[in-house]
Design goal:
about 475 residues; alpha/beta; Fumarate Reductase Iron-sulfur Protein, Chain B, domain 2; four-stranded parallel β-sheet; globular; binds iron/sulfur cluster
Length: about 475
């Protein structure tokens, strides 16, 4: 039996469910202070007014206190399973935040490590009977500890997307042009990113193979069939998340083709970023502004076209937009508008029933080979989507479909996690790759663009005969004759 000290000096005893392994000695920290000096819940701009949990609306303390430390989620948590460390499990993280609010946390460095290593995957919440929203609790703790996304890169990226999206797109294209010259790779080989203290940039550069010089929104605006003008209704509206818009253009175009084939006429909503990046960096006011603009755009179209579902093809963004109401719990005017918008959002993974997915073309099905499905965290844990995409894939792939062991084990991409925690991310990814190899898959279907980049980056290095494809691209390719 091992004891482990949490931040407030409290000791706990491991349960029988936990791996019995030696703990590394706790690092010595000399920095002691009342951490709750950093937590200002009255600052509504910088913190959520309340968390919308399965047990009702809760303040941060009560949400964290819902964790009764039963440990039932421990074996679902990738960071705990890989390290055996209580402080980087859901139970440990909820405990840190609780003590942070109480002012009993003593070590800022330990708290930062605990919260910054969370994948925000939500596997713990799926396993938890009390449905403790650990990812939201962790994000609130991070906002308090890391200064509300005020570092230069967070501010520049979010401000560019929010206030000057065309300029942002221009700079992105310049960066992509530079990538095509091979300069970033050369910089990585020379250790320049390490020298600059940004080793994560080398990981980011290597994870994406081809970068587009025309973005999806530019192409979709030119598609006359997708314009709302002169229309009286729409079967759907396509929302282009930043991944498909700026990086995986082929995903956005495939989604629109699949929607046209399966669901008739629709429109392009010509949206802004959903705000997830601002939200996760700690810039809540910016996230709210992105949300307000998207809600207003939706309402404008709804006035012209009546009710329609808003379809997004990145599960992280779809899950976040479904939670827009949580951004406005202290805002009576925007809260119902956010809730109405959230109710209209659908992930492409859940939108197309098997009967409307078409039929597999024999040559395309043969090319896809053995097909398996990876549950993106924000699809299965964030939105409860598991059955719908499998029903479609089983129909299209037939006997070539294989169920992936531990399909809801995170791939380690988790937004920027692969760049901020490269070593832990690699370990999480390795287990995913071993599972893919165990079913000898040729095609791994995913629903989020960060999974697409992460799994393909791993497959290229360790299992190059397989490839990860986005769900929309798979549906589009496999049903295409010729
Ligand atoms: S998060 Fe839920 S399952 Fe995990 S220890 Fe807390 S109460 Fe138990
Ligand atoms: S969100 Fe994922 S990494 Fe974070 S505590 Fe829960 S299971 Fe662990």
């Amino acid at each position: 039996m091992n004891d482990e000290k949490l931040a407030g000096g409290e000791e706990r005893i491991k349960t029988a469910r936990e791996p019995d392994r030696e703990q590394p000695p706790a690092p010595a920290h000399h920095f002691h202070c009342e951490v709750n000096e950093l937590y200002h819940p009255e600052d509504a701009g910088r913190h959520l007014g309340a968390l919308l949990t399965d047990l009702g609306e809760r303040n941060l303390y009560d949400a964290a206190a819902q964790c009764n430390r039963c440990g039932y989620c421990e074996t679902s948590c990738p960071t705990y399973m890989l390290t055996g460390r209580e402080t980087i499990s859901a139970r440990g993280r909820n405990q840190f935040v609780r003590m942070l609010v109480e002012g009993r946390a003593k070590n800022i460095a330990d708290a930062e490590e605990s919260l910054s290593t969370c994948l925000l995957c939500g596997a713990c919440s799926s396993a938890c009977y009390a449905k403790v929203p650990t990812p939201d609790i962790v994000l609130e703790g991070r906002r308090a500890l890391t200064g509300y996304g005020e570092n230069f890169f967070a501010r520049a990226a979010v401000a560019g997307l929010l206030n000057a999206p065309r300029l942002f797109a221009f700079w992105l294209k310049l960066a992509y042009l530079a990538k095509k010259t091979g300069l970033p790779r050369l910089a990585a080989r020379m250790g320049l990113y390490d020298f600059l203290g940004m080793p994560g940039l080398a990981e980011a550069e290597s994870s994406v193979e081809n970068t587009p010089l025309r973005f999806a929104s530019e192409l979709l605006r030119k598609d006359a069939e997708l314009r709302p003008e002169g229309r009286r209704q729409a079967g759907w509206a396509y929302f282009a998340p930043c991944g498909p818009n700026y990086l995986f253009t082929e995903v956005a175009l495939a989604t629109v083709r699949v929607l046209k084939k399966s669901s008739g006429a629709g429109v392009f909503i010509d949206n802004q970023c959903c705000g997830l990046m601002a939200h996760n960096y700690g810039r809540l006011e910016d996230a709210r502004e992105f949300a307000r603009r998207n809600i207003a755009r939706y309402e404008e179209l709804k006035a012209e076209l009546g009710e329609f579902p808003v379809i997004a093809d990145c599960s992280s963004c779809a899950a976040f937009m479904k939670s827009y109401e949580q951004l406005f719990t202290s805002d009576e005017a925007w809260r119902p508008r956010a809730a109405a918008f959230a109710a209209a959002v659908k992930d492409i993974l859940e939108f197309i029933p098997p009967g409307k997915a078409g039929h597999a073309a024999p040559a395309a099905a043969a090319k896809a080979g053995r097909v398996t499905y990876h549950d993106s965290c924000r699809a299965c844990h964030g939105q409860g989507i598991r059955v719908e995409p499998r029903a479609v894939l089983r129909k299209l792939a037939g006997k070539q479909y294989r169920e992936l062991p531990e399909s809801d084990w995170c791939c380690g991409g988790a937004g920027a996690f692969a760049f901020t925690q490269p070593e832990l991310s690699r370990q999480v990814l390795d287990r995913k790759l071993r599972n893919i190899a165990s079913v000898q898959a040729d095609t791994v279907v995913v629903g989020a663009t960060s999974c697409l980049a992460q799994i393909n980056s791993g497959l290229r290095a360790a299992y190059p005969s397989a490839r990860a494809v986005h769900y929309s691209v798979f549906l589009d390719e496999v049903t295409r004759e010729k």
